[in-house]
Amino acid sequence: MTHDDELEAQIDRWRGYVHRRQVISAADVDELEDHLRGQVTDLRATGLDDDEAFLVAIKRLGNLDAVSREYAREHSDRLWKQLALVPDDSPGSPAPRWRELAVVIGLAVGAGVAVRAGIAWFDDELALVRNVALLVVPFLAAYLGWKRQAGLRTVAAIAVPFVVLAVVLNVYPFVPEGSTEVLAILHAPVVLWLLVGLAYVTASWRSDARRMDFVRFTGELAIYYTLLALGGGVLVGLTAGVLQLVGVDPEPVITGWVLPFAVPGALVVAAWLVEAKQDVVENIAPVLTRIFTPLTIAMLLAVLVALITSGGLVQVDRELLILMDAILVLVLALLLYSISARDPLAPPGLTDWLQLVLVGTALAVDAVMLTAMLTRIAQFGTSPNKIAALGLNLLLLVHLGVSAWRSARFLRGHGTFSELERWQTRYLPVYAAWAAVIVIVFPPLFAFA
């Protein structure tokens, strides 16, 4: 990397940091950046190198929190405008906001129509469950691809594996309710989410920054979708209660029409809200991670004690191992969201130490679970479920282990936070690859049983 490239990278990181200040608009950031570049140019002319000129220029700009407060006083209307339903048009958007809202509503309705048609088309309930993600994901990917004006290569990169996955899920002669069918149902959404990620990053799929943006998008999508589900659930519950009191049974309409349209449609709407209201959620994200990290550590310690004191590892209940896998995946999600929400330029702090404790505790739990799984395999033999769970735990062991090592280096001043970020984004596709193996290879390998 040349000196000019290093300087541009520093300015890009600074710009991202400033842009996260909710009250500073994109135009204000451009103005600050022009001022910063002018300062850097003047300082370089005095003989300072790029790093020295950049640091001095940043100092001359002043404390960014103070800048944010000053902008808040001068532009206080922006605070409530960011919460308006349809924001003002921005020059970089591919279409006016009202048109984007129309596209979102159309795709949300389309997702509902697809699910409703699937309910009528598939007689077998498990066949519907196998295909429900295939029915919904294209509409979400279509919105993200339209939003970013995806090219033909991106569309082809999404469409080809999507078709392959759809063929596999519907052509394979699964034994009804067999292990490989259940595993395919559980892991197909992981592969599909990788395709959603391609629609999100488009041609920038090699960029670590864009991959981390998708991680952040995933966390914020979960927050908005949960809020929509809670609000919608309360509304539907109150409506159903009133109708029942006047002698009308709302269940057929709710189960047959409201839920098939609302559940998938809300996913597209939640994605639009994430795109439109990123600054609002980014203010909440650090608070959420600070609250849930210590709570999750306490939960993992309690689980670890319970596993160790429960007796022989062979007697560990199979359902308990499955539940523990779900907890470790939740820990991984919290780790990723914490990293994506953290200011990369901030020095190490208490939250970073808590994050290291979280990862270390999760590693200990994963090690105990791996021991239990290997003991059960040695005692009772292999099965599709055991091999799938063993593979996932090995992937988690590597992911968490390297994350702990890089976190420790960062906290000791021997590494950078960007190294920890890059490890996350470059390792994540491994999970999708393993999920694809489970969906495509496991069924014929285990005779579709």
UniProtKB/TrEMBL annotation:
The keyword Transmembrane helix applies. InterPro entries: Perm_prefix_1 (IPR047928). The chain crosses the membrane at residues 101-122, 128-146, 155-175, 181-201, 222-248, 254-274, 295-314, 320-341, 353-375, 387-406, 427-448. Keywords: Membrane, Transmembrane, Transmembrane helix. This is DUF4153 domain-containing protein.
